[in-house]
UniProtKB/TrEMBL annotation:
Residue span(s) of domain FAD dependent oxidoreductase: 3-350
Sorted UniProt keywords: Oxidoreductase
EC numbers: 1.-.-.-
Keyword Oxidoreductase: yes
Organism: Amycolatopsis silviterrae
Record has Glycosyltransferase as a keyword: no
GO MF annotation, one: oxidoreductase activity
Protein name: NAD(P)/FAD-dependent oxidoreductase
Pfam families named among the record's database cross-references: DAO
Amino acid sequence: MQIVVIGAGVIGLSVATALARRGARVTVVDQRVPGAGTSSTSYAWVNANKKEPQAYYELNLAGMAAHRRLAESTGGGWLGTGGHLEVATDPAHAAELEQRMARLTGHGYTVEEVTAERARQLVPDLLVSPDPELIAYFPSEAHCYPQLYLAHLLTTAEELGVQVVSGAQVKAFDVDGGRPVLRLADGTALGCDRVISCVGRWTGKLLAQADVPLAMETFTHPGDATVGYLAVTSPVPAALRGLLTTSRLNVRPDGAGRLQLQALDLDRTADPRAVPDPGSPLAEELLDRLRSVLRHTRAATVSELRVGQRALPADGLTVAGPVPAQPWLYVVATHSGVTLAPLLGDLVAKEVHDGAAQELLAEFRPDRLLAPGVRRARTQPPRRPGDQ
């Protein structure tokens, strides 16, 4: 079987390597270079913490397990397994966290309420009052270093004979004798048996070229659901092994002593067309919040400030499955790309190559988003650190 995967992010390369292991001849094409899209601007929190409804929770739970299996079997250094500590310092956050803990405990998800003393054992440099509203610890949650995961995937792809073509923009889809043909901007024509779209936030635009009107959220104004700030600090001597969420800031390691910062209540001004400078008031606000939650960060500076753009199907849930009107076309799009990448690689390969429908994907077929006018309401309640 000859397959073209469009998109060389964490999803596309996971799918490509899983297919190649089954003996498929795989070509991956990307309009830029591997990992240059959404994969490079993700907070990369591996979790099933706020994933609803139940089918979406189950899918993400399986994704967490797949990450750990792959990391353990390969010695991959892309997965940080220090868990997730969430500190609620205001009543509204505490009430929401208490409800979430009860719901997750009912699902069998590992979460425990901890004292301030225990929290400081988990995060030695944590600054927390002796009597915070509520603290929860999620030991099974992790964070991913996407570029290290991509490095593993690219090495594996090369070993398996996968061809990765960068700077290849798809201009059109044709069908010749029942087989799809991709027309690239440079005039190249790629014939194959199946096409798998893994292009993240570009999914709607790409599929429109095949007359497939899949509903995806797109950026329309600063602060909408598709965008958010991510800041990376200079190296600091703060002891933090896993993820830390407070009522005002999310913090996680970014490697070599650097930290990654996220404060979703500040995202109301996020605009990919106007990214603030690392010395901007926004950056200073993030640093002030960091200094209030972690010791030994007073000298931190923001070395990079990004506006990430999320891949977001119109109902917020994963899309994975064949397109009924174009049986040669299979589409994958999800906001939970990092959490789900190893799992989706395996599940999609089983469906496309083996012809074996996967129950975990049964609720996430593209059909539901193909009707004209399908859109999720854009009006959303204010988000806080810890939200997706």
